[in-house]
Specification:
Layout: E1 6-10, H1 14-25, E2 29-33, H2 37-56, H3 64-72, E3 74-77, E4 88-91, H4 97-108, E5 116-119, H5 126-130, H6 136-139, E6 142-147, E7 156-161, H7 167-179, E8 183-188, H8 195-211, H9 217-228, H10 234-241, H11 243-257, H12 265-272
Parallel strand pairs: 1-2, 1-4, 2-3, 4-5, 5-6, 7-8
Antiparallel strand pairs: 6-7
């Protein structure tokens, strides 16, 4: 097994930027790819902002020089040209099986034979993603690495193998996660894995309570924080993750598990209204008010 030294990250959004930051802080060279250079550079800027924010709050142990060095290790790109040197590539683009597969197929043309491909998918079964690979030998080196938001400070990573993932690849992925300060756990392949299936049930019941008029989103969030010890309530978390993404995940869960994960009407209405959460200024809460 070749030593992992260079990391490719597909997607410069919130998750991809934070994954790139975690790798940069651990000393890895990172190639951060987006569909154009403006978005790729924005991803690097997002990583720098995340480092400053979480360090300022004491949640990330990195001084100004360490942050600067980490960001300097992240190179933005709009092409796959440099991916031939990568030892592992972590895909962190949105939850669309077709789009993910198209990106894998482009990568396959340039990746070296021993490169590991990992998906940060939060809901799509790894077996389905592996099936999109055009080169059979790649499937043994493919698995899921599900990071959690905000990935710069959240320690957990779900490591998901499918039936054809080689044991040494799973071991290498475990070692890599530990090398960037994460706490990996092994999870069998299924839609949503462990955490998001539990979270999906919590979100569903929280929205149901709101729809029934039992309590407001603010009071339900307060109940979960004060009564269950959760660091953040379900509605605030949905707004942080994006209600649009939460709805996509619900529909993937419904496809795999049936009616128990049918999206709640209130969530559908939020998305139809464009109230995705923090990124749009409105969600379950109004973030435009100071």
């Amino acid at each position: 097994m070749a030593e992992i030294k260079k990391v490719g990250v597909l997607g410069g959004g919130m998750m991809g930027a934070d994954i790139a930051l975690s790798c940069g802080l651990a000393g890895y060279g990172v190639l951060l790819k987006e569909i154009n250079m403006d978005l790729a550079k924005a991803g690097v800027e997002r990583a720098a902002k995340s480092a400053a924010v979480w360090s300022g709050k004491g949640r990330l142990k990195a001084d100004a020089d360490q942050q600067k060095d980490a960001i300097a290790r992240i190179t933005p790109t709009e092409t796959f040209d440099g991916f031939g040197d990568m030892d592992i590539v972590i895909e962190a683009i949105f939850e669309d099986l077709k789009i993910k597969g198209e990106n894998y197929n482009q990568m396959e043309k340039v990746l070296k034979p021993d490169c590991i491909i990992a998906s940060n998918t939060s809901s799509i079964p790894i077996t389905k993603l592996a099936a999109t690979l055009q080169r059979p030998e790649r499937k043994a080196r493919f698995l899921g690495l599900h990071f959690f938001s905000p990935a710069a400070i959240m320690p957990l990573v779900e490591v998901i193998s499918h039936e054809e993932t080689a044991a040494d690849i799973t071991d290498a992925a475990f070692a890599f996660c530990k090398s960037i300060g994460k706490a990996p756990i092994k999870v069998a392949d299924c839609a949503g894995f462990v955490v998001n299936r539990i979270l999906g049930a919590i979100n569903d019941e929280a929205i149901r309570l709101y729809e029934e008029g039992v309590a407001t989103p603010a009071d339900i969030d307060q109940a979960c924080k004060m009564g269950l010890g959760h660091p953040i309530g379900p509605f605030a978390l949905m707004d942080q993750i994006s209600n649009e993404l939460n709805l996509k995940i619900c529909r993937i869960f419904q496809e795999n598990y049936g009616e128990r994960f049918r999206p709640r009407p209130a969530l559908v209405r939020k998305v139809d209204a464009g109230h995705f959460g923090r990124k749009t200024g409105k969600g379950w809460f109004d973030y435009t008010k100071k």
